[in-house]
Amino acid sequence: MTTGMALRRINCTQCSAPLELHGGHKVERIVCSYCGSLLDNGEGYKVLERHYVEKGKRSFMPLQPGDEGTLKGVSFTVIGFITYRVELESWTEFCLFSPTHGYAWLSWENGHYVFMRRLRNLPAPSSSWWSFQPRQKIAQGATRFKFYEAYSAEITDIGGELPWHGKLGDRVNAADAVAPPRILSQEIEGQEIEYHAGEYLPPQEVAEAFDKPDIGERGLPRSVHPAQPYVVSPLDLYLQFSGRLFGVLAFLGLLFTLVFGSGDVLLQERFSWQVVKAGDKRVTRSFEVTQPGRLVEVSLGSSVNNAWLWLDLDVTRKGEEVFSLGKEISFYEGYDGGEHWSEGSQGATALFRVPKAGVYELNIKASEWGGRRYKSSIDVVIAQGILLNRWFLILTVLLVPFALWALARRMIFEYRRWAPVTQDEDDD
Questions:
Q1: What is the CA radius of gyration of the chain?
Q2: β-sheet bridge partners, residue 224
């Protein structure tokens, strides 16, 4: 791939090394790739300073001056780069040149790429954003951006040809606003303000544009870039769809069991305390089951308070035991430090099935008790055809996270985007 440019050649005025020039007439600075001298293109390639980085010592860079690629349908050549640092964070901006479309920049930070061009139409407000707060609105045409951050960056490395008049150690005051995948960058120098508009590019797109597969293998993103759009993966969509579909079905099942799952009452009676505690004799009541194999529920209730009861009960048919168990009913309450507390329950349930339709006997007796108010009547309700709703409830609860999966992932993604500039606000 070639941009079709006729290369110019000069000799470094410091070391006389031959240099191939790719940029256009706006190039102001040239860095000799042999001795690191910074040459002034406007003053006969006068040496301004030296900046030599021993070969192999410079950190990995995905692109180098002379690389050619096509971005947004335009053929560009990488002609130079500038590396900036703010505290512990650094990034590199590669200068791109096209003989037909002029200059552009490709910013590379932590594996993220942003394609930048000079902006002619001023945003609103167009004054300095230095005092803005995160998420403050900024308009650019029909697009609404949110202010991200303002910073002062130091130039720590330069190379190649640059349409720029700075040097190592210079500081640049800038501010960014985002509307993913777009970004606005404001650079402030004295009273002059310059704007660049950018678009986030996936690493794979840049790798294919410059025919550099290693870009997709090295320096992959380790964080969320301010302009990085959230992309819903096929797995996220599948989990969200499945969670919503089966969650709705489980919820409908829950509603059905709540409305129709209480069954048909076979026996409902209140027993006095004197009856259920009478020695070894159990109270017996008959009930008829017409739906064998379906769940039968025995519900027990008592108004015990700060007391407990132990009830023995069994179900028999023609003298043969079908089901038996013991159930405790206990309830306690009081006040502690002016706060009311309670524990236990004034009710209990038991479920069982009978193999055949017919008449059955319920036998019940209070075998043990204690506490302040245990001499309470016992309410007994027996119903058949019970539909349990607990499984539908559990299934509904388990499916809710899947139904909200994509939303939760997006919220986490947005938190990671804004956390670096909003954590101080949260601390306040």
A1: 39
A2: none
Low-confidence ranges of the chain (pLDDT < 50): 1-2, 4, 427-428
For 235, 364, 380, 393, the CA distances from 305, given in Å and listed in that order, are 54, 21, 18, 31
What's the rounded Cα separation, in Å, for the pair 278 and 309?
Answer: 14
Q: Return left, alpha or beta for 234; rule: phi > 0 is left, psi -120 to 50 is alpha, else beta.
A: alpha
Q: Note the pLDDT tens digit of each residue in 73-101.
A: 999 999 999 999 998 889 999 999 999 99
113: tokens are: 């790429």
The strands making up 347-352's β-sheet, listed across from edge to edge, are 264-271, 378-386, 295-302, 347-352
- For the whole model, what pTM was predicted? 0.68
Please, what's the b/e burial string for 328-356 (b: 16 or more CB within 10 A of its CB; e: otherwise)? Answer: ebbbeeeeeeeeeeeeeebebebeeebee
Q: For residue 264, what are the contacts with CB-CB under 8 A and spacing of at least 6? A: 291, 383, 384, 385
